[in-house]
Amino acid sequence: MHFNSCSPRNNQPWQALFEQLNQNSHPRQRLQPDTRAIAQRWQPNHGFTVIHQPALIAPAELLHRERQWAQIERNTRLFLQGKPANHVLLWGARGTGKSSLIRALLTQQGGKELGMIELDREGLIGLADLIQILSKQTRHYILFVDDLSFEANDSSYKGLKALLDGSLMAPPNNVLIYASSNRRHLLPETMQDNLAAAVIDHELHEGDAIDEKISLSERFGLWLAFHPFNQEQYLDIVRAHIATLRGDTAEQEAHLRDETLWRQEALKFARLRGSRSGRVAHQFARFWQAENLPEINYPSL
To answer: How far is it, in rounded angstroms, from Cα 160 to Cα 164?
Structure first.
């Protein structure tokens, strides 16, 4: 058997193919935001990535969150008008509408004048670089950090704290940070922290550990609290989701929406999960529809 010798000429097609595959496996970084996209994701090592199908919801779908919506919507309007506006911390129980509020805000305000950039906690490491990039843009940007929290031995929060307020770098007028968290102070609080408190001249002074932990959340000028829904509020949200369900026939649709059938099931569903949150209400509606679908008869193999 005879093999042709490998000459540089014979290797050229393979070399071109290898280079093309290498480029595809390492896509070119986008170092500037896409000014046409309403939602993007940013990572220090990968740059900007457009979110082509953001999860949007209409503001009208936000039930029992009217006060929080009015505050964040006004803050955002002031921001777009070039007036004083605050960084926002949305804190409270899980599944109570914190992220939904942000998605509704993007639905209403996202566009030519406002874009939203999503960061994860690791992305905060390069936050100073991101803000430098965005400060040169004419468009306004909201940096959204979902489920933000830090562990006791994690010092990375100090960079965020300095950038929010306390850094030598002046914050740009076209960037705000909106963060959601299950913790009001973003850091775990222990009984040991409280033991360091002392009474001086008849005044209670908190310990240094408490001061340090509170100092981060204090950088957010607007706090929005999200408390658990009561039973009637939970059922209102279930009712709204049930109203969107569709059946194959009018009779099936009427059965799905019959509150005398689903009410007790919805309460039982919430008890099993230990929560009456908006997320649980949405999950129940999907469960209820699936439970009432006609049986599917699969063909025998």
So the answer is: 6
Same domain membership, residue 271 and residue 206: no
Query: Residues 70, 71, 74, 80: what is their CA dihedral angle, to the nearest 10 degrees?
Result: -130
Assign residue 57 the CATH number of its domain. 3.40.50.300
Q: Tell me the backbone φ, ψ of residue 88, rounded to 5 degrees.
A: -120, 135
Alpha-helix runs per DSSP H in 150-258: 157-164, 191-195, 208-217, 231-242, 250-257
Tell me how crowded residue 125 is: count the other CB atoms within 10 A of its CB: 15
Q: What is the pLDDT of residues 14-65, one digit of tens each?
A: 666 656 655 554 456 678 999 999 999 999 888 999 999 999 999 999 999 9
**Which phi-psi region, left, alpha or beta, contains residue 298 (left: φ > 0; alpha: ψ -120 to 50)?**
beta
The answer to whether position 301 is within a domain reads: no
Q: State the alpha helices, DSSP H only, in the chain.
A: 8-25, 66-80, 98-109, 127-134, 157-164, 191-195, 208-217, 231-242, 250-257, 259-273, 278-291
Q: Are 132 and 158 in contact (CB under 8 A)?
A: no
Residue 128 and residue 235 share a domain: no
Q: What is the pLDDT of residues 131-171, one digit of tens each?
A: 999 999 999 999 999 988 776 666 666 667 767 775 666 77
Per-residue model confidence as pLDDT tens digits over 77-92: 999 999 999 999 999 9
Note down the domain range covering 249.
231-291
The residue from 204, 226, 248 where one domain ends is 226
Give a yes or no: residue 273 inside a domain: yes
List pLDDT tens digits, range 172-203.
Answer: 899 999 999 887 766 555 544 544 555 555 55
Same domain for 139 and 284, yes or no, is: no
Q: Does 296 map to a domain?
A: no
